[in-house]
C-alpha cells in the first residue's frame, strides 16, 4: 500500500491554502484572511483586572483618588449588596463616575456570570449593586470605574463561599 499520492495531495492543499492568504492579510475574496483574523483576535484580548486589596481597604484608582468597597454582609449564598465609595485626592466624595461590576465563578466561566452591570448611586454618594451568589465555590467580582466613556480603573476581588 503506497501512501505517497495521499501525502502529495495533502501537501498541495496546504500550499494552495497558504497561497490564498496574501501578504496584506486578505484572502482575495473581500474577507479577512488567516493573518488578519489572528491579528484581530490578538487585539481583542480581554482587559486585565489585577487583584484589589480586600474589602474596607483603600484601592488607588489614579490621580490621588481611591475607592473603598465592601458588602452589606459577608458574602454567602443568596444576594449580597456590593458598596463602593470613591474619594477624590482632597478627600471629598466622587459621584460623577460610572462604576460597573461583573460577577462569576472563574472555575465555571460563563455558567453563572452576571455580565458587566452598572452600579446605582444612592443619595449618600455610595455606588451600590446587588450580586446573586447562586452556589458555593470560588467567586470573582471584576470592578471597573469609568470616566467620560473610558475605563480609568479595573480590579478584581476573589473569594469563596
Q: Quick gist of this model?
A:
The chain is an alpha+beta fold and 161 residues long. It contains 2 helices and 9 strands. A hairpin with a 6-residue loop joins strand 2 and strand 3.
Topology (elements, then pairings):
Blueprint: H1 4-20, H2 34-43, E1 58-62, E2 65-71, E3 78-87, E4 98-104, E5 117-118, E6 120-121, E7 127-133, E8 138-147, E9 150-160
Antiparallel strand pairs: 1-2, 2-3, 3-7, 4-5, 4-8, 6-7, 8-9
Could you explain how this protein is built, in words?
With 161 residues, the protein is an alpha+beta fold. It contains 2 helices and 9 strands. It has helices at 4-20, 34-43; strands at 58-62, 65-71, 78-87, 98-104, 117-118, 120-121, 127-133, 138-147, 150-160. The strands form 2 sheets. A 5-stranded antiparallel β-sheet has the order 1-2-3-7-6, with no helix packed on it. A 4-stranded antiparallel β-sheet has the order 5-4-8-9, with no helix packed on it. Strand 6 (120-121) and strand 7 (127-133) form a beta hairpin. The longest helix is centred in the N-terminal third of the chain and has 17 residues, at 4-20. Mean pLDDT is 83; it is low at 20-24.
The overall pLDDT average reads: 83
The H-and-E topology, N to C, reads as HHEEEEEEEEE
Q: Helical proportion?
A: 10-25%
* Low-pLDDT residue intervals, each spanning 5 or more residues: 20-24
Number of helices: 2
Number of strands: 9
Largest sheet: 5 strands, antiparallel
Secondary structure class reads alpha+beta
How much strand content do the residues show?
A: 35-45%
Give the terminus-to-terminus CA distance: 61 Å
**Strand order within the widest beta sheet:** 1-2-3-7-6
**Spatial extent as radius of gyration:** 24 Å
Shape: extended
Amino acid at each position: 500500500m503506497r501512501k505517497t499520492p495521499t501525502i502529495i495531495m495533502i501537501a498541495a492543499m496546504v500550499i494552495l491554502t497558504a497561497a490564498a492568504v496574501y501578504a496584506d492579510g486578505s484572502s482575495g475574496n473581500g474577507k479577512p484572511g488567516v493573518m488578519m483574523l489572528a491579528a484581530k483576535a490578538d487585539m481583542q484580548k480581554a482587559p486585565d483586572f489585577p487583584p484589589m486589596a480586600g474589602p474596607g481597604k483603600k484601592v488607588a484608582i489614579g490621580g490621588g483618588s481611591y475607592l473603598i468597597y465592601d458588602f452589606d454582609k459577608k458574602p454567602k449564598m443568596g444576594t449580597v449588596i456590593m458598596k463602593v465609595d470613591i474619594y477624590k485626592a482632597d478627600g471629598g466624595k466622587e459621584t460623577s463616575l460610572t462604576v460597573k461590576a461583573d460577577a462569576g465563578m472563574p472555575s465555571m466561566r460563563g455558567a453563572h456570570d452576571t455580565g458587566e452591570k452598572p452600579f446605582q448611586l444612592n443619595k449618600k454618594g455610595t455606588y451600590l449593586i446587588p450580586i446573586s451568589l447562586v452556589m458555593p465555590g470560588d467567586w470573582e467580582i471584576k470592578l471597573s470605574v469609568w470616566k467620560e466613556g473610558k475605563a480609568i480603573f479595573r480590579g478584581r476581588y476573589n473569594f469563596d463561599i
